[in-house]
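Why show two proteins at once? Because comparison is the fastest way to build intuition. When a single record is shown, students tend to memorize it. When two are placed side by side, the eye starts asking what differs. So, the first record is below.
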Amino acid sequence: MTLRVVVIGAGAMGRAWIRTVADDPDVDLAGVADLNLDAATEAAGEGVPAARDGVALAKETGADAVIDVTVPAAHHPITTEALFAGLPVLGEKPVAETVTQALSLVAAAEVTGELFMVSQSRRYNPHLWALRAHARVFGRPGLLTTEFFKAPRFGGFRDAMEHPLLLDMAIHPFDTARFVLEAEPVSVYCEEHNPPWSWYAGDAAATATFEMTGGVRYVYTGSWCSPGLETSWNGAWRLSAEHGTAVWNGDDPPVSSRAGEVETADPGFEIAGALRAFTHALRTGDVPMGEVHGNVMSLVMVEAAVQSASTGARVRVDDVLEHAYELAIAAEPRAEVRDALHSWTSVREALKA
């Protein structure tokens, strides 16, 4: 049987998900929801129900799951409502607007027993999997770097953001670094600035140095306003390890200092790969990449980097986690979710579940 889903959000990304659902033989579109009902109706197409309330529409149509493609501020309320309605959720990144909300969603998934998977779509790229395969055969890693230089003129909310690069884009390479190194962040020192020609109100350039578990360093340098000789949207990567080096330009297969090929896999490509993984997880019970417990640390990296850039100090990731955990308990309106949060003996350990 096919998986019947309601897509919540009918903007440009929502329409991309609708096309992806249409192209997947294992998934059917049960409905489209958006606060703008005209946009939802147009995106849904002929014969597909549309509504303003996506969770209500999913229940009315008997859908099996929802795909949340709303703005980050809506991720927490919509995902919480869907989980407690008995609906698995595949959500766009970031998992939530803040780490505090993300921890609440981890607990909500535990309480309801429903799958909540975040689509970190850049992980679904065979060249990235090849880079990780190189990392696995090169022994102990010492340094992983990313350069990201683009000059998009989006207009709209990004131009007014306080930290446009870190908040809107850096979560992709931060999450990728965790994937390649198979390591977690320990601390970060980050500096931001805004080049004098920038068309962004907030700082559009940043350099962040993360200490990761095992002592390896991950260094990210990027700019949202760097015209000419731009990098791939995936960035340009270099891995330096005990027994070799690999570089990846973000578009083509990685190049290695060692002869011979490495074994890799076909994860699918971007959001189509994420949808395939979500469907497989629901059918088999396997834990997919992006399951909420495993995804939160990517958002923690962003929040820690922003805090470091704002204070000018190195930030310990565990301090960010503990503060968010205290706020999550204080702000949580659902008693069962608060109880789940209280049951955690360690936030780090809870996120490994």
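Second record. Ask yourself what differs from the first in the token line.
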Amino acid sequence: MRVGKVRFAGILRDVCLECVPDAVPGDYVLVHVGFAIARLDAEEAARTYALLEELGQTEELVAGDDVVAPSGASR
């Protein structure tokens, strides 16, 4: 299984990349329940992140117990 490290809201997580086989380091991906389900360009990724922040959906990540310190991984 193809897995990559994805950083979101300062949190680094392992994510399954099987649904987006063309994803490469530095790409933006849309993740749902641990699976990358689509690639996004930088503009769409910024709009999506801003919307999630506006809806308060990034705050719950910071409060989670499974936070991993970032270590220079790609977006």
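One difference worth noting in the second protein: The longest strand covers residues 3-8.
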